[in-house]
Design brief:
By secondary structure, the chain is an alpha/beta fold. The chain is built from eleven helices and 13 strands. Strand 4, helix 4 and strand 5 form a beta-alpha-beta unit. Bound molecules: oxa(dethia)-CoA (UT7).
Length: about 375
């Protein structure tokens, strides 16, 4: 029997700085009334200059490891799903690996925009069920505030910064991620895009003048697509898990727009009280929205062992997907983690590795003049 991937740790991190709709209305021509009635968003968190996608990811990850009672060295795999990586390369996941000191883990980034966390969850689950990985960390992390044009009211009102992380562990007992579906339709790639800075439009003065380094979106088309695929993929994932919609205790959707979520729930005939929504306080955190909502649902007492949950998302690509999870909670480890101490150990380790690399390069240069 293939092992199941249980979610045994979860953590979130959001910047302290809150940007309200009222503040936004001083920056672009908009209003609290318009934003709230069209999106359900009241405020969002914005990273301080010293915070980055990796630093938020590290915070969320250490919290998830603390709950799972695991050391970073217990991890075999780190996946960071992000739409706002620190660089094109190296992967943000490698920066996280170094900063938490996950000495045995492979690490890579996954780009499926706002569906990235569902994709990452599924990839880690498949690695666990194949037996090649025992313990994985899946992170959704964003600083999209750095990539939106703060003069474009179509986009800047929507997004926020933050990170969420899950620890997945192998277990024989049937629970954890029971099924997942992943879909894509690249014919809609122009509907939500950040065109500049890649190999198609390398950064030049022209690309910057044209604003190609900012998020561009056809909101109406993305809206229509989202309402259609959210209900479809939920139904598919639930059927794949051998369950019916009545068996689902909670839906945790990608938090993009209250009206999109309400339409999807209506199509599925799921009452709103069986859905967790926190986008009024965060806006759209892209890949981080589902894990952050999961952390808050847990804290609010909405997740109990044995509950069946659907996580469902959509985004640029176009991509979409859903996963069915039977909530189980942490295994009964006894290890207490001190995140501050772990961070310090990781910094010392990273410093020593960099120093050794320089000494090695110096000696190699002397021997090979
Ligand atoms: O993770 C995936 C990320 N993307 C999404 O989820 C986006 C999905 N789409 C949406 O959430 C909605 O389409 C928006 C919230 C972006 C826009 O809402 P809408 O009801 O589709 O508005 P619209 O784009 O059809 O625009 C209606 C009007 C337009 O004015 P006119 O042309 O009717 O005169 C816009 O110019 O509202 C105007 N408008 C605004 N007005 C005040 C657009 N943005 C704003 C704004 N404040 N921020």
């Amino acid at each position: 029997m293939s092992p199941y991937a249980h979610i045994t740790g979860w953590g979130m991190a959001v910047p302290e700085r809150v940007l309200t709709n009222a503040e936004l209305s001083l920056m672009v021509e908009t209003s609290d009334e318009w934003i709230f009635s069209r999106t359900g968003i009241r405020e969002r968190h914005i990273a301080d200059p010293e915070q980055t996608t990796a630093s938020l990811a590290v915070e969320a990850s250490l919290e998830a490891l603390r709950i799972a009672r695991l050391k970073p060295a217990d991890l075999d795999l780190i996946i960071v799903a992000t739409s706002s990586p620190e660089h094109i390369f190296p992967a943000t996941a490698c920066l996280v690996q170094d900063r938490i000191g996950a000495t045995k883990a492979g690490a890579f980034d996954l780009l499926a925009a706002c569906s990235g966390f569902i994709y990452g969850l599924n990839m880690a689950t498949q690695a666990i069920s194949s037996g090649s990985v025992h313990t994985a960390l899946v992170i959704g992390a964003e600083t999209l505030s750095r990539l939106v044009d703060w003069k474009d009211r179509n986009t800047c009102i929507l997004f926020g910064d933050g990170a969420g992380a899950f620890v997945l562990q192998a277990a024989e007992e049937r629970a954890g991620v029971l099924s997942a579906v992943m879909r894509s339709d690249g014919s809609g790639s122009d509907l939500l895009t950040l065109p500049g800075g890649g190999s198609r439009f390398p950064t030049t003065i022209d690309t910057v003048t044209q604003g190609l380094h900012y998020v561009q979106m056809n909101g109406r088309e993305v809206f229509r697509f989202a309402t259609r695929v959210m209900s479809q993929s939920t139904q598919e994932a639930v059927a794949k898990a051998g369950l019916r919609l009545e068996d689902i205790q909670l839906v945790i959707p990608h938090q993009a727009n209250q009206r999109i979520i309400e339409t999807a729930l209506k199509n599925l005939e799921i009452p709103p009280e069986r859905c967790f929504i926190n986008l009024d306080r965060y806006g759209n955190n892209s890949t981080a929205s589902i894990p952050i909502a999961t952390c808050e649902a847990f804290t609010a007492g909405r997740l109990k062992p044995g509950d069946n949950i659907v996580m469902v998302g959509f985004g640029a690509g176009l991509t979409w997907g859903a996963a069915v999870v039977e909530w189980s909670g942490p295994f009964h480890g006894v290890r207490k983690l001190r995140p501050a101490r772990l961070r310090l150990y990781a910094r010392i380790r990273s410093f020593i590795l960099r120093l050794l690399r320089r000494i090695d390069a110096w000696m190699w240069g002397r021997n090979n003049p």
